[in-house]
Amino acid sequence: MAQSSQSTSKYPFLAGGGEMGELTRNYDWASSPLGTPDQWPQSLRTTLGLLLHSAFPMLLFWGQELTCFYNDAFRPSLGHPGKHPALGKAAPVMWSDIWGFIGPLLQQVQQSGEPVYFEDQLVPFYRNGRIEDIYWTFSYSPAFGDTGQIDGVLVTCTETTNAVLGRRKLENSQLQVLALFEQSPVAIAQIRAPDLVFQLANPFYGDLVGRLPSQLVGNALLDALPELQGQGFDHLLRQVISTGIPYTAYEVAVELVRHKQRETIYVDMTYQPQGESNGAGGADGVAGVLVVCTDVTQQVLARQKLEEAESGLRVAIELAQLGTWSIDVATGGLTYSDRLIEWFGFDPRQQAYHQVIPLLDPQDQERIAQAVARALTPESGGVYDEIYTVIHPQTGQKRILHAHGKTVFDAQGNAIRLNGTAQDITREREIQLALEQQVQLRTQQLAVVNDQLAATNQELQTHLEEYAAINDQLAESNRLLLRSNDSLQQFAYVASHDLQEPLRKIQQFGELLKTEYADREGAGPDYIRRMQAAAGRMGQLIKDLLSFSRISAQGGDLAPVALDQVVVTVLEDLEVSIQEAGAVVEIGPLPVVLGDVLLLGQLFQNLLSNALKFRQPATPPHIRIRSSLRLATELPADVKPSQPSALYHQILVIDNGIGFDEQYRERIFEVFQRLHGKNQYAGTGIGLAICERVVANHGGAITASSQPGQGATFSIFLPV
User: Fold this and answer.
1) Which of 39, 216, 244, 265 allows an S-S link to 283, with CB 3.0 to 4.6 Å?
2) Whole-angstrom distance, CA of residue 527 vs CA of residue 537
3) Cβ distance 585 to 623 under 8 Å?
4) What is the CA radius of gyration of the chain?
């Protein structure tokens, strides 16, 4: 005690400094660069006196060696046993485990004179025999010596490890709660009182109401979901806020705008007040409402459909005049509908189903009992289908019933219930019996007729033999006719080719004569011109004959042909003629048909050429091409396609030309038939015959309608 008193009196600035003050007084300072405490500068004594007497954890690093001091408040951070050998030692040596962190800070403060502050800073620290992750909030401040220079660094610090870890745990807990909120398969939202503004809404709630959560949060209920106006949900929320009483409802119909259309959904919903009620019927402490919704639309719709189906089944049973029945296998109890009670003449309730067997016709009783027993076994599939006669016990009336049933089995294959229906078929059986009697009578009558027919057949057989001989003669005639047609086709083809050569010579010699007599007067040049014109017409006639013969012999496979492409190609070929005539051609959508693209091109080439050729002198041609579908029953009576089909494409080619009298409608499709003189309109009279042959080869038909001076409409029918 004397030594302590002496030390205290010797170093009064250390007096009352607690255990660290006593350790500092008794420390062996002889080997320290600072010397004994009585050699310390006044600034160190003053600073150290403040440090040791402070209840806040503090450290002091002094001098060039950065000799370390600390107070009792800092000692708990050093770990058990609470003593640290760093007292009076150079910091770089004794704090080597964290020198990489504190060293640059100490040097920064010594050099700049500016304090440094850190909050919740992680500093790995050696204590309790291991390196621990310790969090600190600390300040490094310069400590000035007697000369006014920075001779040390004062560190004030607080260990915040528990606070940091606790805060992180709370944050993690909040994140987990938020994640559960966001990922919850239940629609959840938080609405603030009293303005009913969305504070939170999870994605499932957004899906439920057809909005993104970002479109809800921060907006009032009726602003975010205006379609809820007038549905009463805002009033319910205000009621929960005002009373503090939760509200729960099931299968509530809600009209919402989802996916850009208004629809009705059904939800189970709970409005849970958030905050403490004042306990007196009010809820001044309610800060908002937690809304929890579950979409039960599918369950409600399914139940409604089931109810509709059950209602429809009841109606169907009533309309079909069916009776329903059910057997409880465990109890043997039988349930009948009112109609069956009337038919059987007694109420089977509270009785076993086998008591009904005696009411059946004796011939049916054993069979029906066995059928019921068989339907109750899994091997039968649970099917019951029997016809029997029931005898009314009071009136004795017999009624024939047709019963259907199906057994319900449990998971182990045990029969639970046999449900079924029964229909009165007494009238049908009476009709069936009467019909059977009529059939028997008719059979006898037919037997007599058959005998008569047998005799007639014998006579017909004789006539058939005569007809067979006639058919053989017709077949031979047809064969000769086909051979003749083939010969005519070959003749026309060869003749046309043989005519080409002399015709070319006539045209060549005519050109020579035309050149030679070009300057001469008289009738010679005119004769040559006429000869050339006649040769040209003959050449065109030969070409048309060749085309007609080729079409007549046309065969082979057909392929899909887009008619709009065919028409475009034809218009390109007729481009010059169209421009010269100032014609307008309108083309509507055209179908794809099975056909020959070259022949179909000839078809439209001839029709469009005719429309351009037979135009009215003072009116530019206006040609329209349209298409539609026609049932076979809708075709005109005089149209007979060469191939039967249920559906046809009708293609119309309409012009505003000179037209024709409809009495010549059939004639224009014949070879060499002309309604106008060759001097008035050029042509060979084969073009429309080619059109008719092309359409026929494609399984269709062609016709025309017109009036003189009012244009013409050509109708083409091709099978779909």
Assistant:
1) 244
2) 15
3) yes
4) 57
Q: Domain 556-719 has what CATH class? A: alpha beta
3-class DSSP assignment, residue 230: coil
For the record, the structure tokens of 409 come out as 């089995």
So what's the architecture of 2-160 in CATH?
Answer: 2-Layer Sandwich (3.30)
Alpha carbons 55 and 72: distance in angstroms, whole number: 8
Gap between the Cα atoms of 321 and 338, Å rounded: 11
Rounded to whole angstroms, how far apart are CA atoms 337 and 353?
14
Which residue is listed with tokens 């050029």?
682
pTM of this prediction? 0.32
DSSP 242-280: HH---EEEEEEEEEEEETTEEEEEEEEEEEEEEEE--SS
Domain 343-424 has CATH 3.40.30.10: no
What token pair was written down for 462?
């004789």
Q: Can you name the residues that pair with 198 across neighbouring β-strands?
A: 191
> How many alpha carbons lie under 13 Å from residue 540 in its C-beta half-sphere?
13
Q: Which of 350, 355, 340, 359 is nearest to 405 (CA)?
A: 340
Q: Are 560 and 594 in contact (CB under 8 A)?
A: yes
Which residues neighbour 177 within 8 Å (Cβ) at sequence distance 6 or greater?
none
Q: Which helix (H) or strand (E) holds 49?
A: helix 42-52
Query: Which CATH architecture best describes the domain 427-553?
Result: Orthogonal Bundle (1.10)
| Each residue's pLDDT tens digit, 528-545 | 777 766 666 666 566 656
Tokens of 555: 């065969």
Number of Cβ atoms within 10 Å of the Cβ of 68: 21
Per run of 10 residues, the mean pLDDT along the chain (length 720 residues) is 46 80 83 85 89 89 90 78 69 80 88 90 77 86 91 90 83 60 73 90 87 90 92 93 92 90 91 65 72 89 79 61 80 78 69 75 87 88 88 84 88 86 83 82 83 80 76 73 61 61 70 73 71 64 60 64 92 89 92 90 88 86 93 88 90 90 73 48 66 89 88 92
User: Look-up: residue for tokens 């009705």?
Assistant: 264
E runs forming strands in 579-621: 584-587, 592-595
Quick one: which of 521, 549, 710, 715 has its CA closest to 636?
715
Evaluate whether 671 touches 685 at the Cβ level (below 8 Å).
yes
Question: Which superfamily is assigned to 184-302 in CATH?
Answer: PAS domain (3.30.450.20)
Q: What is the dihedral sign for C-alpha 457, 462, 465, 470?
A: negative
Cα separation, 359 vs 351, in Å, equals: 14
Give SS3 for 516. helix
Rounded distance, CA 310 to CA 674, Å?
A: 75
User: Identical fold at 184-302 and 427-553?
Assistant: no
CB < 8 Å & 24+ apart, contacts of 556-560: 556/596, 558/594, 558/595, 558/596, 558/698, 559/594, 559/595, 559/596, 559/597, 560/592, 560/593, 560/594
Strand runs labelled E in 221-378: 247-258, 261-276, 285-295, 322-328, 333-336
Coil, helix or strand at residue 444: helix
DSSP characters over 402-441 = EEEEEEEE-TTS-EEEEEEEEEE-HHHHHHHHHHHHHHHH
Over residues 390-442, the pLDDT tens digits come to 888 888 888 888 888 888 888 888 888 888 888 888 888 878 877 888 888 88
Contacts of 128 (CB under 8 A, 6+ apart): 79, 80
Q: How far apart are CA 440 and CA 26, in angstroms?
A: 140
